[in-house]
Amino acid sequence: MESQGRVAQQETDANALQPFAVASRTEGGWTVIDVRGDLDVYSSPTLRHLILDHIHQGDGKTIDDLEHGDFLDSAGASVMVSALRQAANRNGTLALVQPGDQARRMLRLTDLDKVLRTFTSVEDAVNKGLPGMGAET
After folding, report:
1. Taking CA atoms, which of 46, 55, 85, 137 is between 20 and 30 Å from 129?
2. Domain for residue 1, yes or no?
């Protein structure tokens, strides 16, 4: 019994969610924002401020890399749509990279997958992510 408890605890520790964090970098003329952890009502203001700061500085082409994002709720999606609108007002755009299964499902159920373009990699988004294009994946 005791060994089963330790195995279960190790599995739980291995699957623990990472705390929310964002970091930005530039790749191919795009601002790439790496998102880690849950993008929800509590963390979305942090991402909103970072994206809008870049847009207002003239960096209108933004990629949100969600490869390490664990969860996306309506507040997080709202940030994405708002950022896309702000970028488009400045002849820019916003693309998503590698949203997880839960995020894809949420985007699909809300029809936001028709508005927010998704790509399989940052490189793919940089090469194909031009304003006015439809969803790629």
Report:
1. 46
2. no
Sign of CA dihedral 81, 59, 43, 16: positive
47: closest CA among 27, 38, 6, 106?
Answer: 38
pTM of the predicted structure, to 2 decimals? 0.81
| 25: its two tokens | 């970098």
Give yes or no for a contact between 129 and 61, defined as CB atoms under 8 angstroms apart: yes
CA dist., res. 41 & res. 46, Å (int): 10
Tokens 């708002």 found at:
82
By percentage, how much of the chain surpasses pLDDT 90?
Answer: 78
Element containing residue 93 per DSSP (H, E): strand 93-97
The DSSP symbol for 89 reads T
Q: For residue 137, tell me if it sits in a domain.
A: no
Question: What CATH code is carried by the domain that includes residue 80?
Answer: 3.30.750.24
